[in-house]
Amino acid sequence: MDQTTTIYHNAACGTSRNTLALIRNAGIEPLVIDYLKTPPTVAELKSLIDQAGLTVRQAIRQKEKQYTELGLDDPKLTDDQLLQAMVATPILINRPLVVTTRGVRLCRPSELVLEILPQPQQGPFTKEDGEVVIDASGSRAAGK
Q1: Rounded distance, CA 34 to CA 1, Å?
Q2: Which of 128, 126, 142, 125 is nearest to 27 (CA)?
Q3: Which of 18, 19, 55, 141 yields a CA-CA distance of 20 to 30 A from 127?
Q4: How many Cα atoms are found within 13 Å in the side-chain-facing hemisphere of 93?
């Protein structure tokens, strides 16, 4: 296992599954954190968001019903209040977040992981929906 590559993963999410598969396609076996069962601390989450160059609002899943149910759409809420809610209700953490020696990315779409992988892709890769991302030579497919 490569201790320098970590994915905060949700196996029920296609984007997260595709991102994990792209990491493995580079020959890397990352540390996989099921953040729904083992959420980061508020400090860890804040650090990940900062390193990824995101705002807290960009890192929260606004599509989740809990977002509106908990009133998190209130613009008066502070980043700390949002971070507390995300850790308490981890489904609200946008995914997947990937950490490598080359940086941190929220990999939406999954191809964003290619920007921070320390190793090249080792073969072709097709996303679950059939979209070709990496061609037979291990290069980005045309238009990617």
Answers
A1: 16
A2: 125
A3: 55
A4: 32
What residue ranges in 19-122 does DSSP mark as E strands? Answer: 30-34, 97-100, 103-106
User: Do the Cβ atoms of 131 and 137 come closer than 8 Å?
Assistant: no
Q: 19 in the Ramachandran plot: left (φ > 0), alpha (ψ -120 to 50) or beta?
A: alpha
pLDDT in tens, 86-131: 999 999 999 999 999 999 999 999 999 999 999 999 999 999 999 9
The mean per-residue pLDDT over the stretch 135-139 comes to 87
Bridge-based pairing state of the strands 30-34 and 2-9: parallel
Separation CA 46–CA 82 (nearest Å)? 10
Asked if 13 is an active-site residue, the reply is: yes
pTM for this entry: 0.93
Domains, the chain: 1-35+95-144 (3.40.30.10), 41-93 (3.40.30.10)
User: Average pLDDT over the chain, rounded to whole?
Assistant: 95
Q: Where are the beta strands (DSSP E) in the chain?
A: 2-9, 30-34, 97-100, 103-106, 125-126, 132-134
